[in-house]
Amino acid sequence: MSVQLHSRVLQRAPQSTRAIMLQVMLACTPGILLSVWFFGYGIVLNIVLASAFALFTEAVILSVRARNWWQGLQDNSALVTAVLFGIAVPPGLPWWLVATGIVFAIAIVKHSFGGLGQNPFNPAMSGYLLLLLAYPLDMTAWHVPATRLFDDTAISTLGWYGLQQSLLASFPGLPLPSATSLPAIDGLAMATPLIEFKMAATSALLSARESGLSFFARESGTGWELVNFGYLLGGLYLLARRIISWHIPVSIIGTVALLATLLYAPNSFAIYGTPYLHLFGSATMLGAFFIATDPVSAATTRRGQLLYGVCIGLGIYCIRVWGSYLDSVAIAVLFGNLCAPLLDHWCRPTIYGHGARQLPVTGGEWKA
Asked: Which end of the chain is more exposed for a tag (fewer CB within 10 A), N or C?
C-alpha cells in the first residue's frame, strides 16, 4: 500500500515553488487590469511599492539568519505576498503605510516563525489587518482620480495626468511637471458596494444593461463586479492548472451563497444583500481563490479544507453583515488560519483496520 501511494505521489511531478508563484501572479492579472481601468493606477503603485519593500525585507532577514538571500528570493513567495497585499490595500495609500504593512508581513508574520512553510498566518492579510486596526481612516478611503469616475473620454483617464494624480496620492508633495494644475483626487469611503449601499439588492451589470451603458463605462458602476469576475477567471485558471484544489474556494463560495440565500429578505427592514452581490460586490472571489488557498497557512487534509472553507465563509458573511469592520475577508481568513491545525488534527485519515489510529499529515498527502 505504501509503495502504491508513494508512486502515485511521484507520478504527479509537482511544480517548483517558483513556477507555482509565477502562475498565481499571472492569474491575478485580469483582476488587476480591470482595477486599473476602473480605479486608476493606484493599485499598480501599491504593488510596485509593496514588491520593492518585500524583496528588500526578505533579503535583509535572510542575511541576518545566515541564509542565501539570493536563492531565497528565487522562490517568488515574497512577490506573491506583495501582490496580494497591494491588491488588498486601497489605491492612493501613502507609501509609508504600504511599507509598514508589507515589512510587518514579511519580517514578523513570515520570518519570526521560521520563514516560508512555517508561518501559521497569511502574511498579506496580517499586514492588511495591522493597518486596518492602526490606521482605519486611511484604510477606508479610496483615492480615485475624478477623471476616472466622471470623464470617460478625457485623455487624462489613460495618460500621464491620471498617473500623476495617483503618484501625488501615494507621495504627497512629490514635485511633478504640471502637478499644480491637476484636479484634486477624490477621497472616497467606498470599501465595497456592500458597505456603501448597505447590501443594496441591485446588480450594476443589470442596471448598466437596462440603461444602455457599456459594462466598461466608468459611470456605470460595474467596476467591483467585473473585477470579481476577473479574479474568478484567474481562480478557474489555477484550478485548471491544479495549482489549487477545489475544496477551499468551493466551500467558501458555497457557504457565503447559502447564508445569503437563506437570510435575504427583500421586503424586511434589515436587507442583508442578495447572494449575487455577496459574491461579486466585494472581495469574495479574491479571498476564496487567492488568499484562503495559501498552502502554508490553510488546512491540508481534504476534509479539513472543506471545514476550513466553511469557517471562512461563515466569518465573511457574519462580519460583513453584523460586524463593524469594513473588510471581512482578511479577518475571516486569519480566523481560518487559527483553526487550520485543529481541523487537520480532527480530519487525519485512519489506517484501515486499526480503528482510531491515525496517520501523520505531510503537506496534504498521507502515507502508510
From this structure: N
36's grid cell: 486599473
Cα–Cα nearest to 128, from 46, 251, 234: 46
Select from 324, 241, 358, 359 the least CA-distant residue to 289: 241
Q: What are phi and psi of 200, to 5 degrees?
A: -55, 145
Question: Per residue in 66-102, is it b (16+ CB within 10 Å) or e — as a string?
Answer: eeebeebbebbbbbbbbbbbbbbbbbbbbbebbbbbb
pLDDT tens-digit series, residues 12-46: 446 788 889 999 999 999 999 998 888 888 899 99
Q: Cα-Cα-Cα-Cα dihedral of 81, 85, 88, 91, to 10°?
A: -140
Each residue of 93-132: pLDDT tens digit?
899 999 999 999 999 999 988 888 889 999 999 999 999 9
CA separation for the pair 205, 225 (Å, rounded): 8
Question: How many angstroms separate the first and last alpha carbons of the chain?
Answer: 7
Interacting residues of 44 by C-beta distance below 8 A, sequence separation 6+ = 32, 36, 166
Q: Is the pTM of this model over 0.70?
A: yes
How far is residue 152 from each of residues 156, 168, 226, 246, measured CA to CA in Å? 10, 21, 17, 39
CB count, 10 Å around CB of 359? 13
